Request: fold
Amino acid sequence: MKRYSVLALALLLALHYVTLLATPSSAEPMNKSSAHITSRSLVEDLTGTLGVAPPTGARPLSLITISLLKDFEGWAPAAYDDPSGFCTIGYGHLISLKRCAEISLDAFAKNLSEAEGENLLEKDTCTARVHVQQLVKVELTDSEFGALSSFVFNIGKENFATSTLLSLLNANERQAAAAEFRRWVKSKGQVYSGLVDRRSCEATLFLGQLTLDKQGRFNRQQCKSLGAAPPDGTLIDIEVGEQREGRK
Reply:
């Protein structure tokens, strides 16, 4: 009997060890989608580069815009280090510009519910939305506003302020402005397929040609096929920006 008890104990310990190995730590990414690049707008908010806008002044986003954002930001209920080494959680919420292991997670030490993640996303996009409202001088449809808000959330408010896209839009050259989205597909010198897809979907939304499927969900396949990038010489790195890219 003793021999069987020892064997049973050894088996239980082995199973426990395997379980520990299979369980992701809180600093492991739950979503490693190539579409997720650190939000430049959130980096600006954390560093205080442009200041944080009041949370009450932002135009609301349409359902399809929220669905697009959620799809491209990806969902991670537990804190993890994103590809830039920044502690992140939920739908791309930036906790810190440091790794998770280097900070106290406090309220983010436990998993988020999806509702909590959606609330964070609403707050996180606030400054991007306010800047779209402040910088764009023409009337925008909900689709145009949503596309620009997703775009600015990703590339940053400073980059948007000096972009050709904004200049064309303020000159009411909307078709030409829509074509500018697909130039912003590089990060750290590399073209990312996820950014190509995102820019294509944002441009499609901007043109009012993006709809939810029969189940009321966003499907990136609807706009992904339109995402062919322009020649390399005209591409812009979101980490550098259009003006500085041109001075290289």
Remarks:
- The chain is about 45% helix and 5% strand.
- The first strand starts at residue 76 and ends at 81.
- Residues 6-35 have pLDDT under 50 and may be disordered.
- The first helix runs from residue 2 to 22.
